[in-house]
Design brief:
By secondary structure, the protein is an all-alpha fold. Helices cover about 75% and strands about 0% of the residues. The chain has a two-stranded antiparallel sheet with strand order 1-2.
């Protein structure tokens, strides 16, 4: 993402700085203990990729206040989903830091996620931005449907690749699509966001197998331990029928690491990486039809490339 910030001169870093200020303002003044838990979630950092997409699709010449507000709102929704995911997964770490669920318990973590979600919609509603409220609401429904699908599919090695991709489009890509549309209403950008979001998820699933924990901020094979069926696992099971016979319910940290090695030995990770590269290329082709400034097209292509480079 450094290349994107450098290429955008001063306007993008400046607006991302405004987003950070708005994020702090959005969670300030809500009392202890929720305010503290929300602040710790914000302090854990993140790539701010979704706000960046909002700002880039809006462009330098768009209304700065509305773009920053929308970028802040989508990051608050993203943060909320992470807190809620950690409750469902009983995750001890997120980005190398203890999760709210681990430090404050499930009940407070759920409430913290609810606070972040409500603040996102309040930001947009206060400005009377009905279109953005609807876009974000639709995305939130997609996120919930994707999470339910993932829970339904847990530990089921019989699910198809298409089922996995449909689930990923809901659970991950929908927020990328929403970010692009919040910035600029263009169906080419919707598909760009979808393809980049899918690639992001595929590569994240590869990283769960390869690790290491100091890079991912979580234990290697975390998805395997909670029964999440990912494309690397689906591809490995197709190449090595013995993988399909593994009892995912019986895995511990050591046997999950062994299964990660077995998945890697099938060549599945390279297959998934190639699929992700194809998705990024397809997303970049969508930019050719989008009606906006050449600089925006260049910067969005750099974002797409950065998704891949993060995992190289």
């Amino acid at each position: 993402m450094t290349a994107v910030l450098d290429a955008s001169s001063r306007w993008l870093p400046s607006r991302l700085g405004e987003v950070e200020d708005r994020l702090r303002e959005a969670i300030d003044g809500h009392g202890d203990p929720l305010g503290e838990d929300a602040a710790s979630t914000l302090a854990a950092g993140g790539k701010r990729l979704r706000p960046m997409l909002v700002l880039l699709c809006a462009g330098e010449k768009a209304g700065a206040d509305s773009a920053v507000r929308a970028a802040t709102a989508i990051e608050l929704v993203h943060m909320a989903t992470l807190v809620h995911d950690d409750v469902l997964d009983e995750a001890p770490l997120r980005r190398g830091h203890p999760t709210v669920a681990a430090t404050s318990g499930r009940a407070r973590a759920v409430a913290t996620g609810d606070l972040l979600l409500s603040r996102a919609f309040a930001l947009l509603a206060d400005a009377g931005d009905g279109r953005s409220v609807q876009l974000l609401a639709d995305a939130a429904v997609g996120l919930a449907r994707g999470e339910l699908a993932q829970r339904h599919d847990a530990f089921d090695l019989g699910i198809s690749e298409q089922r996995y991709l449909d689930r990923c489009r809901l659970k991950t890509a929908t927020l990328f699509e929403c970010a692009c549309l919040l910035g600029h209403d263009d169906e080419h950008l919707r598909e760009f966001g979808a393809q980049v979001g899918l690639a992001f998820q595929l590569l994240d699933d590869v990283l769960d197998v390869t690790g290491p924990p100091e890079r991912t901020g979580k234990a290697r094979g975390t998805d395997l331990l909670d029964g999440t069926i990912t494309l690397p696992l689906i591809e490995a099971a197709a190449a090595d029928p013995g993988v399909r016979e593994v009892d995912l319910h019986g895995l511990d940290a050591a046997t999950a690491a062994e299964l990660c090695d077995r998945i890697a030995a099938t060549g599945a990770l390279e297959t998934v990486r190639m699929r992700a590269l194809e998705m990024v290329a397809a997303g970049k082709r969508q930019l050719e039809g989008a009606a906006f400034e050449p600089e925006q097209r260049q910067l969005l292509a750099l974002v797409a490339d950065g998704v891949v480079q993060r995992y190289s």
